[in-house]
Amino acid sequence: MSSLKREEIICLFDVDGTLTMPRQKILPSTEEFILTQLKPRATIGLVGGSDLRKIAEQMGGEDVITKFDYVFAENGLVAYKNAQLIGKMNIQKHIGEENLQKFINYALGYMSKLTLPVKRGTFIEFRDGLVNVCPVGRSCSQSERDQFAAYDKEHNIRENFVQDLKQQFPDLGLVFTIGGQISIDVFPKGWDKTFALRFVGSDGFKEIHFFGDKTAPGGNDHEIYEDSRTIGHTVTSPQDTIAQLKALFHL
Predict the structure, then answer these.
(1) For residue 219, what are the β-bridge partners?
(2) Does the pLDDT at position 1 exceed 80?
(3) Is 9 in a helix, a strand, or coil?
(4) Which listed CATH number (3.40.50.300, 3.40.640.10, 3.40.50.1000, 3.40.50.970) goes with 6-89+193-249?
(5) To pair with 77 at 20 to 30 A between CA atoms, which of 34, 69, 115, 223?
């Protein structure tokens, strides 16, 4: 590891599967390592697909925006630096209500024809910067999440859904990415996690490291992982993230 100062190097982290298990709270040991061992050595930031409320739930409370130097919710479309809101985008204004309703109506129709192990509620979640589409329903329990994730792995439910959406909406300028265990994030082209780099890119960092688990094409970490401005690291779990950080920073 080069002997860069803290203000010259930043580590950006996905949340689900990277610092926490999917939709679970960060383990005290993981948080302690990030805040007490890594933070003195590098600037730290989160880049999550979820809204700030969900990120705060997983990261131990609303003071997450003070613990981390940067917090980018909704792929960076809601951005905080040193606990101050520095940017916010709105998908409804961007693509228009008529187009938004066409998309939502179609997605609900598609999901109504799926037969899954279980179905619960909240199939569409509207956020500031993206629409989250969830075939199983976001109100499912953790065991039902795990059940859907296993079923999806075998039957490619989300992958097939994404291919269909691409065919149905080629002209809205939307991107469809598989995120977490159960859902698909939908947002305007360019509003993926690379959006967060607009804020850190001008802050003088010599190295921008990104850690994520969904880095393959179609995953919601892929674009920022392969971006020429970042040094990408694929991880398989929070434990793997810590192991890679220890190796990188000789901790």
Answers:
(1) 178
(2) no
(3) strand
(4) 3.40.50.1000
(5) 34
What is the percent of the chain with per-residue pLDDT over 70, rounded to a whole number? 99
- Asked if residue 54 has pLDDT above 60, the reply is yes
Q: pLDDT band for position 179 (50/70/90)?
A: confident
**Residue ranges covered by each domain of the chain:** 6-89+193-249, 91-188
Euclidean distance between CA atoms 108 and 54, whole angstroms = 23
**Which pTM does this prediction carry?**
0.84
pLDDT digits (tens, 9 = 90+) for 61-107: 999 999 999 999 999 999 999 999 999 999 999 999 999 999 999 99
Looking at every residue in the chain, the average pLDDT score rounds to 95
Residue 88 burial (CB count, 10 A) = 13
CA distances from 69 to 65, 83, 119, 178 (A): 7, 8, 38, 27
Binding residues: 14, 16, 23, 127, 138, 145, 183, 185, 213, 225, 227, 230
Classify domain 91-188 by CATH number.
3.30.1240.20
What residue numbers does the annotated binding site for Mg(2+) cover?
A: 14, 16, 213, 225, 227, 230
Catalytic residue among 16, 69, 192, 221: 16
Q: For this structure, is 51 an active site residue?
A: no
For this structure, is 16 an active site residue?
A: yes
Please identify which of the residues 14, 152, 192, 221 carries the catalytic annotation.
14
Residues 234, 54: Cα–Cα separation, whole Å: 23
